Amino acid sequence: MFSLIKITKLLSILLIPIILLSQHSVKNIDSNLRNQSWEARWITHPTASTNDYGIFHFRKTFNLNSIPDSFIVHVSADNRYRLFVNGRSVSFGPAKGNLLHWKFESINITKYLDKGKNVLAAEVWNFGEDRPVSQISNQTAFILNGESSSNVHVDTDNSWRVIKNKAYAPISDFSYLNTYIVVGPGEKIKGKKYPWGWQTKNYDSENWKKPKLLEHGTPRGVGSGLNWALVPRKIPLMEESIKRFQKVSRTDSIKIPEGLLTGERSIKIPKNKEVSFLLDQSYLTTAFPHINISKGQGSKITLTYSESLFTCKGKKGNRDSVNGKIMRGVYDEIYPGGGERREYSTLWFRTYRYLKVEIETGDAPLRIHDIYGKYTAYPFQQKGKFVSSNDALKEIWDIGWRTAKLCAHETYYDCPYYEQLQYTGDTRIQALISLYVSGDDRLMRKAINDFNHSMVSEGLTQSRYPSNDPQFIPSYSLFWISMVHDYWMHRQDRKFIEDKLRNINNIIQWHKKYIDSNDMMKAPPWWNFVDWAKEWNWSRDNYLGGVPKGGNNGYSSILNLQFVYTLNQASEIFRNFGRKHLANEYEKLAQKIKKSVYETCWENKKGLIAETPAEEDFSQHANIMAILSDMFKKERQKKVMKRVIDNDSLIQTTMYYKFYLFRAFDKVDMEKEFFTELKSWHNMVDKGLTTCAEKPDPSRSDCHAWSASPNYEFLATVCGIEPASPGFKEIVIEPTLGKLKNVQGVVPHPKGKIKVELTDSTQRCQAKVILPDSTTGKLIWKDEKHTLKEGKNMFKF
After folding, report:
1. Which sequence spans correspond to the domains of the chain?
2. Which numeric CATH code is attached to 240-377?
3. What is the pLDDT of residues 561-610, one digit of tens each?
4. Can you tell me whether residue 170 is helix, strand or coil?
5. Which of 119, 163, 388, 488 has a CA that sits 20 to 30 A from residue 427's CA?
6. 303-to-181, 516, 787 alpha-carbon distances in Å
7. How far is CA 346 from the centre of its chain?
8. What is the mean pLDDT of residues 289-300?
9. Structure confidence at residue 210 as a pLDDT band (50, 70, 90)
10. Cα-atom radius of gyration of the chain, to the nearest Å?
């Protein structure tokens, strides 16, 4: 996705996202934290700029006569912080939100405390103008509110101390990559200026400054005029674990000993020497790079990160290949200041498969003791399972699940390398993968709330959020409604859904304003993105990429039929919630639009829906949406669908929109075609990709979550596991094995696990289905329906 709309900083501050929590967080936040201001004050540096780039350290020492049973701290910062207790990292945040929903973490730090002297220390940074587009900000500040049975006071006030770390400077210009990259700056770190040991008990902070006191911590809904409306985090802390590089792929003027990558052996680089080496993680990852060194004053270390290497013509080719290729990517620079066993890391994680290390020593030698990554992402656990007789499908499953994990941190990401932004179009697909493979719905709930809070007064959600650079894709507001519908079908949570009804109606009424006298919606304003089809590339005539004919100025059948698709989903929700008048309104509007699209865009000779009433261009997309919006009766839907996949002259779907192609297959009982359409994913595996690319090569991103959709389809289409009623109360299982001889599938459900085992031979088919307690369902096999009860169900056909 690309940034299109620049709106003032004030507007971006006032627009809204939502709520979260951590693995160490207390489940029941003290009511005083919700109903009144905290004793703790927001604090900042007394003289440094609070809006420019800066890294700051805060400290508070205190004594304990005994270690209390519970010592809870509630902590937050703007932009970001990492909290240490006695030198040990205990929390990293805050989870991203906006100023009207600013997150705080709640951590029980008892196990990190000592009898006697203790220190709380926080590293807080503000990337200023270089901050990621996903980062909303007011000013540099930190807050900590403590609750302890020992009555020890640790709240942030003027008893704390602060210093600005002058070792850091930003590396801001990555224009040489010639693409949209908005994840924040690289870091230039000068070791000689770094206050080593600042977070430990024995460090002397006597000369640090007293902080400037700002407002009291104020929960959302309390008081007025506050700069940060605090709400508790309701997602877990991000996972952090050491991941070692697998091999050295290339060296220049240096020999790397065995054992360096395991931390068992060090290597010495002589003075006045230039060397480099290329490390291969063997798979893509998101991690904080760490390098532990001694001496080396006057040296320079450059760390460059890339998803893959490039030929001199900028092609990626096979991702496993390094010969004759060059490194291009974001980078950090380290200038060692001497000293023993200095460990350097970055403030923000990096995305890479390959890491190039370039070293120029000065008049002193440098010793590297260790180099590794500390993996970080949302702590999704794989509880779902897909196993089949085709091993190639397992490879697709594996790269898809890695993609889904790397594109999920404190929000869902479109891609971790270039943007780290939560887009609705991507997120709908990601959320379904999360539900089916992990069963964890917390990040999905957060995403739905994020977009709900991003609503602007005219009636649209922002297309990506949180974001300090507002952007609007009207069809993504419609996909937000689809996300709410997905959640409604998979979870019993009426209060959560009811809170979204007003904004669902706002979005529908906004689109309704553009219905013309011909009962079709004229292209609405903003960016009417649909897919990265090559025919819709950025150009002088098509000045917005990814937009179909009629999407800039005219009547697009795709946009109209997506509106119909969404109206159908919204009417189901509203009818279920007793809002029959609105449900009826949506259904009538859907019928009018659908009738008009058919009358103006149906081309009888081709037997397809055209892009526009001019009937000059035809795409898979328009006809997929015609099927998903129930334009035709079922027997006709299948005929149209066959024309969609047999006609190569149609504008083809790319990785993103194949999710809707797969959904159309499922709707018209053509699931076997799903296996044929997996050729793009087989090609990715053959090219050495360890995650799913944004689109077929040439692809900017090697890790794009919308392309992981087969992981959902393996369970929803191949194993056939889907909800038959809202809340997943009833379960329908309609498998499609294609040429597979057997499959096993497991889907986590709020009440347990749904398990399916199928063996299909020329003689007979055997099926075992296990449903969770208090659920029922039906198994559909070759058009025959069989009742399923809770527990084990066995069938032979």
Report:
1. 21-165+196-233, 240-377, 385-718
2. 2.60.120.260
3. 999 999 999 999 999 999 999 999 999 999 999 999 999 999 999 999 99
4. strand
5. 388
6. 18, 56, 59
7. 20
8. 98
9. very high
10. 28
